Amino acid sequence: MKKSTLPDTMRTKGGDSEKITINLGPVDLGQIDLLVEEGFYSNRTDLIRTAIRNQLALHAHVVQETITRRALVLGLQHFSRQDLETVQAAHERLNIQVLGLASIAADVSPELALATIESVVVLGAFHASPAVKTALAGRIR
């Protein structure tokens, strides 16, 4: 099972944002509200997003080394039905490894996904139809 070299059309950066939920204690939340009230940040989300980005910048070297070592695609990787049919015609199987967003088009059948996708490792978000996710459940790590 070899890792396929994907066309550039299947590798791009970007993507929509994902919503997360966090729990904070009242003191932390109060401090955030105080900084927002004092005009340091426009809202709670702005402060939290800034704090996360600062931590990611602090660890950027480690993240980059890990991306390289694990051969992860950084950003967005989208698979259309045509992309997977091309992989199938070449008698190849994909090992999808993404840090960011991996998506499979809505018109991809579970059968086509099973025939072409060996494994899925996504650090971030994985978008596919419920039927494709169910079909690939044993291959998603």
N to C succession of SSEs: EHHHEHEHEH
Q: Give the tally of β-strands.
A: 4
Overall morphology: elongated
Give average pLDDT, whole number. 90
Main beta sheet: strand number and arrangement?
4 strands, mixed
Low confidence ranges: 1-14
- Helical proportion? 40-55%
Radius of gyration, Cα only, in angstroms?
19 Å
Number of helical segments with 4 or more residues: 6
InterPro entries: Arc_rbn_hlx_hlx, RHH_8, Ribbon_hlx_hlx
Protein name: CopG family transcriptional regulator
Write the layout of secondary structure elements.
Elements: E1 11-12, H1 26-37, H2 44-58, H3 60-70, E2 73-79, H4 81-89, E3 94-104, H5 110-116, E4 117-127, H6 130-135
Helix pairs in contact: 4-5
Report on this model:
InterPro entries: Arc_rbn_hlx_hlx (IPR013321), RHH_8 (IPR041088), Ribbon_hlx_hlx (IPR010985). This is CopG family transcriptional regulator. It comes from Trinickia soli. It holds the Pfam family RHH_8. The protein is of the alpha/beta class and 141 residues long. The protein has two domains: 8-16 and 60-139, no CATH class; 26-58, no CATH class. It is 43% helix and 22% strand. The chain is built from six helices and four strands; from the N terminus they run βαααβαβαβα. The protein has helices at 26-37, 44-58, 60-70, 81-89, 110-116, 130-135; strands at residues 11-12, 73-79, 94-104, 117-127. The chain has a four-stranded mixed sheet, with helices on one face. α4 crosses α5 (110-116). The protein is elongated, with a radius of gyration of 19 Å. It starts with 10 loop residues before the first strand and ends in a 6-residue tail after the last helix. 17% of the residues are buried.
